[in-house]
């Protein structure tokens, strides 16, 4: 039974990754067809991100009331509606409006599935789960590229991915009886089924440094992915084509790293995986500073990707151990929301900062976030250890 659900969850995470990178791939054609500025893509991504943050914050309330299966099914339904709706969008305002269900659906399903896996499966599956997300995020732009040369190609691309999501909704709906059994089992473990206020969760020992860790991680991953290409071109004189290839190697490092981390996590615990990943990231950041050798910088970039690989899945999987099973869903939602805040606002913040001090500050900016993440993680480990010993 758990194996069948795990297969469904893996497929769901591929599907979750599919829409995440297609806007950037399709936007050069979308903004021309809809006659809007190319800079308007930032507005769409902000709307989607805000929806994701909001649904993550309130995911516990809906999951406790309706169960993981129903929330996941409805969330994927919202993303399908958003994607298919974009196919019919007559103007830019409709793209913005449809970004709302896209964001709301993504945040809720992310929180629900991550907590479900943290509660019911081993750490290796959490790593492979996020590896599958990377497969989806890689496949999405590839599917879009197939259609872009055709008339209204971006619409066909969105429709194709929307249909894939709709098929997943049907599969999830059929699987609802399986989810319900585990929701019942989970509720049996929970002594108090009342919704716990966010303010109460934030007062838990170790909660705040844990949130800082999530914020810093996503800020590092997304800021690196967005700006390292410009850093390499402007500061080090690499060609745009070469820099783009390097960025793809960075993401490949994260995907392969998570696949390998699944096997390594059989021998090492979550805390060890997190620390190894964070130290590896710091080493990669230091190598990125060395500008006299492009080969060393490439190694540094790939090292950051490999370091990022185990951190996020291990932090998610450690949540029930840190805060208890009965509180894990509430904390999980807040952690996801905080992670999205980091990924939404820190890359643009660096963009503004780079206009003032230049792109050469990028490795130092990343190192500050990496070190803060390491310090916060060590602090939450110490606090939770002391709390558990009482």
Automatic annotation (TrEMBL):
Membrane topology note: Multi-pass membrane protein
Official protein name in the record: MFS transporter
Protein family (similarity comment): Belongs to the major facilitator superfamily.
PROSITE patterns associated with the record: EF_HAND_1 (PS00018), MFS (PS50850)
Record lineage: Bacteria, Bacillati, Bacillota, Clostridia, Eubacteriales
Subcellular location(s) per record: Cell membrane
Major subcellular location class: membrane
Keyword field contains Transport: yes
Residue ranges constituting the Major facilitator superfamily (MFS) profile domain according to the UniProt record: 5-381
């Amino acid at each position: 039974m758990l194996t069948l659900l795990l297969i469904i969850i893996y497929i769901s995470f591929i599907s979750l990754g599919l829409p995440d990178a297609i806007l950037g791939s399709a936007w050069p054609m979308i903004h021309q067809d809809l006659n809007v500025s190319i800079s308007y893509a930032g507005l769409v991504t902000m709307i989607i991100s805000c929806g994701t943050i909001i649904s993550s914050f309130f995911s516990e309330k809906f999951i406790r009331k309706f169960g993981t299966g129903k929330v996941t099914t409805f969330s994927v339904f919202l993303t399908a509606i958003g994607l298919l709706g974009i196919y019919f969008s007559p103007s830019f305002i409709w793209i913005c409006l449809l970004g709302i269900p896209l964001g709301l659906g993504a945040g809720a399903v992310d929180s629900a599935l991550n907590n479900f896996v943290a509660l019911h499966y081993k750490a290796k599956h959490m790593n492979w789960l996020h590896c599958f997300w990377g497969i989806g995020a890689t496949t999405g732009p590839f599917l879009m590229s197939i259609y872009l040369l055709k008339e209204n190609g971006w619409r066909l691309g969105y429709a194709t991915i929307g249909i894939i999501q709709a098929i997943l909704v049907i599969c999830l709906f059929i699987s609802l009886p399986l989810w319900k059994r585990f929701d019942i089992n989970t509720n049996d473990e929970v002594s108090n089924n009342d919704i716990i206020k966010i303010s109460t969760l934030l007062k838990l020992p170790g909660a705040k440094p844990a949130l800082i860790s999530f914020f810093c991680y996503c800020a590092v991953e997304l800021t690196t992915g967005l700006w390292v290409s410009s850093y390499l071109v402007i500061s080090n004189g690499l060609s745009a084509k070469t820099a783009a290839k390097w960025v793809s190697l960075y993401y490949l490092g994260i995907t392969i790293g998570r696949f390998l981390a699944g096997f390594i996590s059989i021998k090492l615990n979550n805390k060890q995986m997190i620390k190894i990943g964070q130290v590896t990231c710091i080493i990669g950041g230091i190598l990125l500073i060395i500008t006299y050798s492009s080969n060393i910088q490439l190694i540094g970039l790939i090292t950051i990707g490999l370091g990022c690989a185990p951190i996020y899945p291990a932090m998610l999987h450690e949540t029930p151990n840190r805060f208890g099973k009965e509180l894990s869903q509430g904390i999980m939602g807040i952690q996801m929301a905080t992670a999205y805040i980091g990924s939404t606002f820190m890359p643009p913040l660096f963009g503004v900062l780079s206009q003032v001090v230049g792109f050469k500050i990028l490795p130092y900016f990343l190192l500050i976030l990496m070190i803060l993440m390491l310090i916060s993680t060590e602090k939450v480990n110490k606090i939770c250890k002391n709390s558990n010993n009482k």
